[in-house]
Write a structure and sequence with these properties.
Oligomer: single chain
Helix content: 25-40%
Structural class: alpha+beta
Distance between the termini: 18 Å
Low-confidence stretches: 374-383
Shape: globular
Strand content: 25-35%
Bound molecules: FE2/S2 (inorganic) cluster
Radius of gyration: 23 Å
Length: 386
């Protein structure tokens, strides 16, 4: 059942989706202070394994050394070249390709400077790569670009245990893809928060929008949750249930979707957990990182069932990629409409879309703005004010 009795207001003014200054403030106030799911421990197989990423315009290097993953801004302290040019791989040492400065893999301090006397006077450890906070939960690697602030455990709060259980060993990662769309990041995320469009956009894969009696919404400070009907395929469910039972796990018969503000969403169904992380890379461009995990067994003969579980989970991940691709194809046109200098109304949200005003109110609060509804027809005791 839905929580609200009435329709709800559009809380975010249209300018917040298209104004470059607002976007810069979002980076400072919302995105830099929060944790971003950016990689998995599966990508760090041994000492020296690394990946490079870009987050809010900052090039990053994540690299394993002394058994832990360390994060740096991937920029040389000498004359600002990118230090690691590859997207992933292995390196014995962090060395800039321009003049050969080398950096400590834990502290980021300069370790070796060719022709060092010509830089006199320079104290040891005075220059280095900028360190970035990295923490893990299960197999998930998170980065926070702001010093201090909350720990990852504090940030994830109630969902920490769930994510640790679903992605820690002996789970398996069965998919990891990256896509982009021309769209403001908030529009992409709002699309994930409602089942209103399902019956039209996803009818081929998901059928009609679920009935209200089949839905449940939970809204808490910092996150919301949807639960609805699961996989329609009885055969798939039977096989999945059989395999999961062999390793002592239960099937998620119903589908659930959780959104931890501001960029982390994940769905659970049939023993598979799929993360959809929407990272803004410009005012009008968003990157979608999709990572899927499934349950596995790690002892004895039960490993026999792992292969079957991974196979089904890969099929589930492919299925959901098709569903999400339908959204990604639509997003540029939704955004193009929202960018119009004149709009036919201030927008209106249905009860089925009630997770959206909750998210919008959170955005306004983080930005230090008054979370009042913008819709003239909005009820005065709407979600924006709860
Ligand atoms: Fe890196 Fe010169 S820019 S060593």
């Amino acid at each position: 059942m839905f929580i609200s009795d009435t329709h709800l207001p559009q809380c975010l003014p249209a300018e917040t989706y298209r104004d470059p200054e607002w976007y810069q403030r979002e980076i400072e106030k919302i995105l830099l202070p929060s944790w971003q799911l950016i990689a998995t421990t599966h990508e760090f197989k041994k000492e020296g394994s690394f990946v490079t990423r870009e987050l809010f315009g900052r090039p990053l290097l994540l690299r394993q050394e002394e058994g832990a993953i360390h994060g740096f801004v991937n920029v040389c302290a000498h004359r600002f070249s990118r230090v690691e040019l590859r997207t992933c791989g292995h390196s014995d040492v962090i060395r800039c390709p321009y003049h050969g400065w080398e950096y400590d893999g834990v502290t980021g301090d300069t370790q070796k400077i060719p022709d060092a006397p010509s830089f006199r006077p320079l104290k040891k450890g005075e220059l280095g790569m900028q360190v970035v906070r990295v923490e893990t939960c299960g197999s998930l690697v998170f980065v926070c670009l702001q010093e201090g602030g909350t720990s990852l455990r504090e940030y994830l709060g109630d969902v920490w245990d769930l994510l640790e259980t679903r992605t820690g060993r002996p789970s398996a990662m069965v998919a990891h893809t990256v896509d982009q769309s021309v769209c403001n990041w908030k529009i992409a995320l709002e699309n994930t928060l409602e089942s209103y469009h399902v019956g039209l956009v996803h009818k081929k894969y998901l059928g009609d929008s679920p009935e209200e009696v089949d839905c449940a919404h939970v809204m808490q400070p910092g996150w919301t949750y949807f639960e609805g009907p699961g996989n329609e395929s009885k055969l798939f469910q039977i096989v999945q249930k059989f395999l999961l039972a062999r390793i002592g796990k239960e099937t998620d018969v119903r589908y659930s979707h959780t959104y931890v503000y501001p960029t982390l969403t994940f769905g659970r169904v049939d023993g598979v957990t799929i993360f959809w992380v929407y990272i803004p890379i410009a005012l009008d461009r968003v990157e979608l990182r999709t990572i899927a995990f499934c349950h596995q067994a790690d002892t004895g003969w039960r490993r026999f069932w792992n292969f079957g579980l991974r196979l089904l989970a890969k099929g589930e991940a492919v299925f959901w990629r098709k569903v999400v691709n339908q959204d990604m194809a639509l997003l540029p046109d939704i955004y193009r409409g929202a960018k119009s200098p004149t709009l036919p109304s201030k927008g209106l949200i249905s009860r089925r879309e009630e997770r959206i005003p909750h998210f919008q109110k959170w955005i306004l609060q983080q930005m230090g703005e008054n979370p009042q509804p913008t819709g003239e027809s909005a009820p005065s005791d709407s979600v924006c004010n709860t």
